[in-house]
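Students often ask why we bother encoding 3D structure as a string. The short answer is that it lets us treat folding as translation between two languages. Here is a chain of 260 residues written in the first language.
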Amino acid sequence: MSYKPPRRPQFFYTTAPLPCPYVPGRTERKVVTEIAGPEADGLHDRLSRAGFRRSHNIAYAPVCPACNACIPIRIPTADFHPERTLRRIARANAEVEGFEVPARATAEQYQLFQRYQQARHGDGDMATMSFYDYRAMVEDTPIETFIVEFRDPDDRLVGACLTDRLSDGLSAVYSFFLPGLDRRSLGTYTILWLIERARALDLPYVYLGYWVPESRKMAYKARFRPAEVLAGGLWRTLTEADAAADPVGPPLKLVSETAG
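And here it is in the second language, the structure alphabet:
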């Protein structure tokens, strides 16, 4: 029999309280853990199914006291049927083409990223990111990651989405697009593109991060139906009643800060 070294312990840590970026007046705390080593892909898969998100080589999830506003959400690709508004958005972007490229930062991407941050999030931390910060966001990944570049017929870069490949789907890590094209709804089109790409790859889900009904910036994710949300440790179908109400189910809980 071949020798298999014991799996190293996986340590989880809780961050200090910070102002919530989504709901004014609330405090945010996260549980974080490192994604590293030869089993990084498998670990990332398990954490994604448990409601975690990735940034660089860190996975995180909200553990905010007395708040469950951030709800993990994913789209079952086989069952997805776009409603009329989403079909209209797809038609409006019929000439926009998506290209999968390696997770390597380019000056062209960074210029678009800067324009997007200044127009949409000028008072946020990401608005001050240098090219080297952007490169770290894109390239510091321990798992299979790529960028989808969206280009118009003139080969102009109009959008991009940093995307992780999971064993059961695609995970949209961060997307940005050219300001001033609001009628195109490029952010929504990015999700539609990822759903179709996941279908082509026979992957059952597209992970969209957190649905935050109380935040206008994050509430739009409930438009993609059917969707599944993680509540009480189980993924279940998002209903019309859920979408019209406040956050569903209990907040994400972890049994301890260390796990074997």
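Translate back mentally: DSSP finds seven helices and 16 strands in the chain. Keep this in mind for the problem set.
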